[in-house]
Amino acid sequence: MSLRSGTLARASIAGLLVTGLLAACGGGDDDGDAGQQGTSTAPQTPLVIKVSGRKVDLAGIGTAKPLLADGIRRFGAPSEQEKVGDDACHLRWGDIGVFAIYANLGGEDPCGPTTGRLQGAALTNTRWRTAKGLAFGDPEAKLHELYPDAVANENRFTIASATRADGTREGLISVVIQDGKITSMQVYVGAAGD
Predict the structure, then answer these.
(1) Of 116, 121, 106, 104, the residue nearest 68 (C-alpha)
(2) What are residue 153's DSSP bridge partners?
(3) 1 DSSP assignment
(4) How far separated are the first and last CA of the chain, in Å rounded?
(5) How far is Cα 77 from Cα 75, in angstroms, rounded to an integer?
(6) pLDDT of 43
(7) DSSP states of the chain
């Protein structure tokens, strides 16, 4: 999927996260074997998604408008990086199942380590889990057990949200269910638009 060149509004980038762009990262073939990563018998440190108020911390990269440099410091060099239009940068850390959108709405390089800010990510690896313990690959029943108030929209369930200044609700963490299990965990950070 390609984006038009030019300035992307915050709503446009947020829309990318809600639409099929990131949903395609869960359960599809575009991740190769990323969904199988982290399934070895060797113990691996879980990668935890935490929410505090309206802020999301993706496995320790921070909640204060995380930069691309923060992602690189935490996860290492991305396996793929592509500038899309003038304002967005798509990155993939294949070994841990991360597809992320970084952006810069102020005219600077969205792929720059100190200018690209995390907008959102799709997570497709068994190491990813929420602070309550819901993990990629878990059965749908565990979702309903841990998050009984999850808001459904077809096969996507929003499990964490926050109220924006205008009073509307904004989804921060959602999961996609296919064949009775979680095939993608998606986070919205929105660092470039705040």
Answers:
(1) 116
(2) 156
(3) -
(4) 25
(5) 7
(6) 53
(7) ----SSPPPHHHHHHHHHSHHHHTTSSSSTTTTGGGTT-SSS----EEEEEETTEEEETTS-SSS-BHHHHHHHH-S-SEEEEETTTEEEEEEGGGTEEEEEE-TTSS-TTSTTT-EEEEEEE-STTEEETT--BTT-BHHHHHHH-TTPEEETTEEEEEEEE-TTS-EEEEEEEEEETTEEEEEEEE--TTT-
7: amino acid identity, one letter: T
Query: CA–CA distance from 135 to each of 46, 68, 148 (Å)?
Result: 9, 24, 16
Dig out the tokens for 149 from the structure: 């108030």
Over residues 36-75, the pLDDT tens digits come to: 443 444 457 899 999 988 889 989 887 778 999 999 999 9
Percentage of the residues of the chain whose pLDDT score is greater than 70: 77
Q: Between these two residues, 117 and 7, which has the higher pLDDT value?
A: 117
124 contacts 183 by C-beta, under 8 angstroms = yes
> Residues 137-172: pLDDT tens digits?
999 999 999 999 999 999 999 999 988 888 888 899
Side chain identity at residue 117, one-letter code:
R
Tokens at residue 7, please?
Answer: 């300035």
Helix (H/G/I), strand (E/B), else coil: 123: strand
